[in-house]
Amino acid sequence: MADRNLDSKPENSHGSEPAAGACPGALDGIRVLDLSRILAGPFTTQLLGDLGADVLKVERPISGDDTRRWGPHYSTDANGQPTQQSAYFLAANRNKRSLAIDLQKEDGAALIRQLATHADVLVENFKVGGLEKYGLDYASLKESCPKLVYCSITGFGQSGPYRDRPGYDFLAQGMGGLMSLSGESDAQPMKTGVGIADVMCGMYASTAILAALRHVDQTGQGQWIDMALLDSQIGWLVNEGSNYLISGEVPTRLGNAHPNIVPYQVFPTRDGHFILAVGNDAQFSRFCESAGLDGLAEDARFATNDARIENRDQLAQMIEKKTLEQTSAQWISQLELAGVPAGPVNDLAQVFDDPQVRHRDMAIDMPPTHEGGSPVRLTANPIKMGAGGVSYRRTPPALGQHTDEVLTQVLGILPEKLAQLRKLGAIG
User: Fold this and answer.
1) Whole-model pTM above 0.90?
2) DSSP assignments along 206-245, one per residue
């Protein structure tokens, strides 16, 4: 690994040491230089930070990561006033230290190049070739940082006819086929409610980084990882992608229905909707018995899943007529007793109040970034491990909160030099 200069113990967002006896994360000792912004890159590095890595988030002075101002909804300071910490920013930037460095200034770019020599991983999502002029592209760094795992995240990758196009989650969902599969059959194509192409690209990127770190352990050689939103979106088309590649038939939108399993969709009830997720013929038989749909499970049109797919519309109409007779809660309780998978369609208030979700601690409270401000409530990392797992050490940082700390700890820069760099505008 790179010489990480880890002479001092890691600190949390208020400068105090972690609790005594805290189990180190699996990535404790790994340093990540994060030059990314928005979602895909920051989500990647937050995952690494949650698992113990020391993540140094480099941001533009004054403005910082674009998402800091992507409201509505901001954390508040001691006076109850909104901060620069939007809920969007908070979602992907915990367990990081923020450095305000202007890479457009040569002194600023030089600082980042020096930090790269003390890093194990660098993550960036600039346009293709955007870091070359600063000497921060992989080709410029690999000689001085031979063990560096360098991950580039772009819309379309480092090669191909679209390589120079800007890339966004919405575009990836559309171009990657997801929107052709989402929404009702007689309505317009529909994106998902969250930036799932960004998130999944971050998931793939974090996995690739971990594999590359293992490669460094085995060979001593770093490498360049080329991640694209479009590639990632296509990669997780899973069964629908395979359905097309095997059959040559272009799948169409089915709303909430499933292309390969019936009945597996939302049904209306007396007071709303619920999800019925019949996964096999035995469950269908139990559903019919519980619902009072006598003889339906033995009907040749519906007795097997293949037959149910062929007659899905007719079956859905028959089930819908029945489900309207009871409330959602009644159906869910009744079908649970029958061993038939069913569940509610929750809004987010219901999600975070659900007893299973509360038991699994899927919402966490972190200390306020600003002294006297409100605690920061975040969605938890879902990873549960016996050892070396997730920890929440640092609240998402204020812009430039750790500039002096990191440059002093990692590069040994003295206060006089920091003042000079600040005067030159290289740091904020």
Assistant:
1) yes
2) HHHHHHHHHHHHHHS--EEEEEEHHHHHHHT-HHHHHHHH
> How many Cβ atoms from other residues are within 10 Å of residue 90's Cβ?
23
Catalytic: which of 34, 198, 271, 299? 198
Mean pLDDT of the region 248-260: 94
Q: 193-220, pLDDT tens digit by residue? A: 999 999 999 999 999 999 999 999 999 9
Q: What is the pLDDT of residue 189?
A: 93
Note down the domain range covering 74: 31-236+360-424
Q: What does the pLDDT look like over 117-147, one tens digit per residue? A: 999 999 999 999 999 999 999 999 999 999 9
Residues 57, 405 contacting (CB under 8 angstroms): no
Q: Residue 124 belongs to a domain with what CATH number?
A: 3.40.50.10540
Residue 313 belongs to domain with CATH number:
3.30.1540.10
Domain-located, residue 353: no
Mean pLDDT, all residues of the chain: 93
Average pLDDT over residues 311-330: 97
Task: Detail the DSSP E strand segments found in 77-143.
Answer: 82-86, 96-100, 121-124
Tell whether 97 is covered by a domain: yes
- Within a domain: residue 63? yes
- E strands, 87-207, are 96-100, 121-124, 149-154
Average pLDDT on 84-100 reads 96
Count of the separate structural domains present in the chain: 2
Burial (CB < 10 A; 0-12, 13-18, 19+), residue 326, is middle
Q: 5 vs 90, which has greater pLDDT? A: 90
Please indicate, yes or no, whether residues 343 and 371 belong to a single structural domain of this protein.
Answer: no
Joined tokens for residue 201:
């690209």
Q: Which residues contact 409 (CB under 8 A, 6 or more apart)?
A: 5, 7, 8
Whether 107 is catalytic: no
Q: Which residues, listed in sequence order, are joined to residue 343 by a DSSP beta bridge? A: 275
Token output for 85: 């910490």
Largest CA distance in the chain: 85
Residues 335, 368, single domain; the answer is no
